[in-house]
Design brief:
Helix content: 25-40%
CATH class of the largest domain: Alpha Beta
Distance between the termini: 89 Å
Structural class: alpha+beta
Shape: elongated
Radius of gyration: 31 Å
Largest sheet: 8 strands, antiparallel, barrel
Mean pLDDT: 86
Low-confidence stretches: 1-33, 374-378
Strand content: 35-45%
């Protein structure tokens, strides 16, 4: 089943060949209609591509290709480990720009292009024979005469790609006329992308289109700052009149070009055609393997029931249930999967194509752990089991302790700035108690206050005593499934002098919410620095 799901691959060729992540779900509109932006964003094949322009030495072409065949194995390993998305080699046909061979690597971020090649590590991957080929042939057969990094600006989606030897592409070097860069990019996105998308759907020879922008370059590279890529099959013959008819049908479906639009006035173009020699299999990279593991139904407990998440490539469907199985609602969102700093994460997109949020995760033994933050931490959000059956809340003591700790810290973060926002994490029987003993300062000793009276009688009083606010620094925190203890150091300017108090707080929890908070501090400092009172020594 999995193999069938991943035969539809978006193997975009970066430089025209950037073979993209495997696609199974087909969300595109037909015949060039603009697809839903959220799903298009989720299917973006890459963010950046690093391109190397090669100078192959005279008489060394055969050795150079042999060396690159070994480098293919290196890049397959890098892709399998999630360090790149893909790699390829292509040879330019005769051209006026002096371009011969190029290689490319497509990645999520520019940082992914750094530190890829540890030769000791590579030797371990390849074995002695292949490693010797790299050592003996690579530097003798070529030099890198130029390098550049390009960002992907726009693209088509959902093509079935053949073997690399059947793929060719036009790399179009675009130089906007003075003052027309933005207008040219806008015209490509508004009028050319829909046409190219329709061609992908209608023309069996046409595979993909991309719009790229150069973000950095060094050495001998083309000067054009913008590029388009047209990927096509070189093993499919097609009469010119048939091709023109298909392209006209695509143009009609995408809509006519404005009468006043002239691309010749917006930019100059130079074209180089390339034939692909090698490229990595995108169905075997780390992201594609994650999709295979994620696909299916997953269920996690929630506070008052459970939730079921059903994953297919680029789609997340979540349904919420009460403990008795009654549905409380559902939602479907486009998602992408990435590996960032060696950490898997998925990103959820809105219907407008904007990223809503990203969540790090880990898969182990058919358990899906979701985390908070941008890297793995002890703060787990959900634990999904790979089943569509109900999984009710039986959190471990450690999980409950982590959740309690998180709520206690949230209490401090919002207590003095937006206390009303705390209501969702407070139990209906919530009580706050100040544990001082000196009368007539702050709240009376040992009297509990609910949230409403805390707002009215306590928090409203604080600014009068510490007009410039108070700084609280947490020094210790201990949490278990029942409660949290916190030590803090306070720093403030009191109404009657410096107020640098030490605090201890005791939190208790019930039904997954804060039930009570007790505050302990030096009420002598409260009396002295906030109320201007001095204690009189007792004389028996």
């Amino acid at each position: 089943m999995r193999k069938k799901l991943y035969t539809k691959s978006l193997y975009f060729v970066l430089l025209s060949v950037l073979v993209c992540t495997s696609q199974a779900a087909h969300h595109s509109a037909s015949h060039g209609e603009k697809m839903e932006p959220g799903f298009k964003a989720a299917k973006k094949p890459y963010n950046y591509v690093g391109v190397d322009f090669m100078k192959v030495f005279s008489g060394q072409e055969e050795n150079y290709v042999k060396a690159e065949s070994v480098w293919l194995k290196v890049h397959e390993k890098l892709a399998s480990d999630g360090r790149i998305l893909g790699w390829g080699l292509a040879k330019a046909r005769e051209n006026d720009l002096g371009i011969g061979y190029i290689t490319w690597k497509h990645v999520q971020s520019q940082d992914d292009l750094n530190g890829l090649y540890d030769m000791a590590e590579i030797e371990n991957w390849l074995g002695a024979e292949d490693f010797q080929i790299l050592k003996n042939i690579t530097q003798k057969s070529r030099r890198i005469k130029g390098r550049e990094i390009l960002a992907l600006n726009d693209y088509t989606i959902d093509s079935i790609f053949p073997e690399p030897s059947s793929i060719a592409f036009n790399w179009n070097f675009m130089t906007p006329s003075a003052g027309n860069r933005s207008a040219y990019i806008a015209a490509e996105k508004a009028h050319i992308q829909p046409w190219q998308q329709a061609k992908v759907e209608l023309d069996p020879r046409f595979l993909a289109w991309e719009l790229q922008e150069v973000v950095s370059s060094k050495g001998d590279t083309p000067q054009a700052v913008l590029r388009t890529v047209d990927v096509f099959r070189n093993d499919v013959t097609q009469p010119d009149d048939e091709r023109q008819a298909l392209w006209q049908t695509a143009r009609d479906a995408a809509g006519p070009l404005p009468d006043d639009l002239s691309f010749a006035q917006l930019r100059e173009m130079q074209r180089v055609t390339f034939d692909v020699i090698f490229m990595t299999d995108r169905s075997k990279n780390a992201v594609s393997k994650l999709w295979e593991e994620l696909e299916g139904s997953w269920t996690a407990p929630s506070e008052d029931g459970y939730r079921t998440k059903t994953i297919s490539p680029y789609t997340e469907r979540i349904e919420y249930f009460k403990e008795d199985g009654e549905s409380k609602g559902r939602q479907t969102k486009p998602i992408s999967v990435e590996i960032v700093n060696k950490t898997p994460q998925f990103t959820v997109y809105g219907n407008d194509g904007e990223s809503l949020f990203s969540i790090p995760f880990r898969l182990k033994d058919e358990i899906w752990y979701e985390y908070s933050g941008v890297a793995f931490s002890s703060e787990r959000i959900f634990r999904y089991e790979k089943t569509s059956e109900p999984v009710l809340n039986e959190q471990s003591a450690m999980e409950m302790a982590i959740k309690n700790k998180r709520m206690a810290l949230e209490f401090f973060n919002k207590l003095l700035t937006e206390p009303v926002a705390l209501k969702p994490i407070l139990h209906k029987d919530f009580a706050f108690t100040y544990m001082g003993k000196i009368p007539d300062t702050l709240l009376p000793y040992g009297v509990p206050y609910d949230m409403e009276s805390l707002l009215a009688n306590w928090l409203s009083h604080i600014p009068k005593l510490v007009p410039d606010g108070i700084e609280l620094k947490t020094t210790d925190i201990i949490a278990d499934e029942n409660g949290v203890a916190v030590r803090q150091k306070g720093k403030a300017k009191g109404k009657y002098g410096p107020y640098n108090n030490d605090y201890s707080w005791l939190f208790k929890f019930k039904e997954g919410k804060i039930l009570s908070v007790e505050e302990f501090n030096s009420d002598y400092l409260v009396a002295k620095s906030l109320y201007g009172r001095n204690l009189i020594p007792f004389s028996p």
